[in-house]
Structures are given as structure tokens and as C-alpha cells.
Specification:
This protein has about 80 residues and is mainly β. Helices cover about 0% and strands about 60% of the residues.
Length: about 80
């Protein structure tokens, strides 16, 4: 059974694409435009689930734009 699930609830597609991941693989999603991209990573470590959100460069039309920058990270389900 999968531990992680991803979907694209809003897009030009008529159906909602989904993906799944396991504790040992994690799951990564990316959303992009010509100016750059955002990547979200979920992973399992030491019995807990964590996330990272990064701005990443994106190759669009043969040229790469944007920069790599960690925007947020933390434990899923943890309250502050």
C-alpha cells in the first residue's frame, strides 16, 4: 500500500492525474512556468514524514531560468 499520494486537481486535463509513493521512495511534485518552478518533496525519515518546498530552475524552450532556493521544510503533522 502506498504511503504518499499526489494529484493535479486543476489543469487543462479532463481527468485528475495521480501518483503514489512509498516510505522508501518518497514523492516529488513540480509545477513550472517560463520564470522557474516550485518542487515539493515528501519523504520518510526516522519514523516521521517530512516536507521540503524549493524554488528550482526550469528549462523552458531550450533556456533555463529561475534559481534554486529552499522556501520551507518541516515535519508533516507537527504543530508549531
Amino acid at each position: 500500500m502506498s504511503h504518499y499520494y499526489a494529484q493535479i486537481p486543476q489543469s487543462a486535463r479532463k481527468t485528475v492525474p495521480t501518483a503514489r509513493g512509498h516510505k522508501n521512495t518518497g514523492i516529488v511534485t513540480q509545477a513550472a512556468c517560463a520564470e522557474g518552478a516550485i518542487e515539493v518533496r515528501l519523504y520518510h525519515e526516522d519514523g516521521k514524514d517530512y516536507f521540503e518546498v524549493e524554488r528550482i530552475p526550469w528549462s523552458y524552450g531550450g533556456s533555463s531560468s529561475g534559481r534554486k532556493e529552499l522556501l520551507a521544510k518541516g515535519e508533516l503533522g507537527a504543530s508549531e
